[in-house]
Amino acid sequence: MTMLHRDRYFSPDPAVRALARSLYDRVASLPLVCPHGHVDPRMLALDEPFPDPAALIVIPDHYVVRMLYSQGVPMEALGIPRLDGAPVERDPRKIWQRFADHFYLFRGTPSGAWLTHELENVFGIRERLDSRAAMRIYDAIEAQLAKPEFRPRALFERFNIEALCTTDAASDTLEPHRQIQASGWKGVVRPTFRPDLAIDILHPSWRQEIERVSDRSGIDIRDYGSYIRALEDRRAFFKSAGATATDHAAVTPYTAELSRAEVDALFARALAGTATADDLHAFTGHMLMEMARMSVEDGLVMQLHPGSYRNHNDLIFERFGPDRGADIPLATEYTRNLRPLLNKYGNEPGFRLVIFTLDETTFSRELAPLAGHYPALRLGPPWWFFDSIEGMLRFRYAVTETAGIYNTAGFNDDTRAFPSIPARHDVARRVDAQFLADLASRHVIEQDEAEAMIVDLAYNLAKDTYRLGEVRDAAGPTA
Amino acid sequence: MTMLHRDRYFSPDPAVRALARSLYDRVASLPLVCPHGHVDPRMLALDEPFPDPAALIVIPDHYVVRMLYSQGVPMEALGIPRLDGAPVERDPRKIWQRFADHFYLFRGTPSGAWLTHELENVFGIRERLDSRAAMRIYDAIEAQLAKPEFRPRALFERFNIEALCTTDAASDTLEPHRQIQASGWKGVVRPTFRPDLAIDILHPSWRQEIERVSDRSGIDIRDYGSYIRALEDRRAFFKSAGATATDHAAVTPYTAELSRAEVDALFARALAGTATADDLHAFTGHMLMEMARMSVEDGLVMQLHPGSYRNHNDLIFERFGPDRGADIPLATEYTRNLRPLLNKYGNEPGFRLVIFTLDETTFSRELAPLAGHYPALRLGPPWWFFDSIEGMLRFRYAVTETAGIYNTAGFNDDTRAFPSIPARHDVARRVDAQFLADLASRHVIEQDEAEAMIVDLAYNLAKDTYRLGEVRDAAGPTA
Amino acid sequence: MTMLHRDRYFSPDPAVRALARSLYDRVASLPLVCPHGHVDPRMLALDEPFPDPAALIVIPDHYVVRMLYSQGVPMEALGIPRLDGAPVERDPRKIWQRFADHFYLFRGTPSGAWLTHELENVFGIRERLDSRAAMRIYDAIEAQLAKPEFRPRALFERFNIEALCTTDAASDTLEPHRQIQASGWKGVVRPTFRPDLAIDILHPSWRQEIERVSDRSGIDIRDYGSYIRALEDRRAFFKSAGATATDHAAVTPYTAELSRAEVDALFARALAGTATADDLHAFTGHMLMEMARMSVEDGLVMQLHPGSYRNHNDLIFERFGPDRGADIPLATEYTRNLRPLLNKYGNEPGFRLVIFTLDETTFSRELAPLAGHYPALRLGPPWWFFDSIEGMLRFRYAVTETAGIYNTAGFNDDTRAFPSIPARHDVARRVDAQFLADLASRHVIEQDEAEAMIVDLAYNLAKDTYRLGEVRDAAGPTA
Question: In angstroms, what CA-CA distances link B330 with A282, B309, C332, C377?
Answer without folding.
Answer: 30, 6, 11, 18
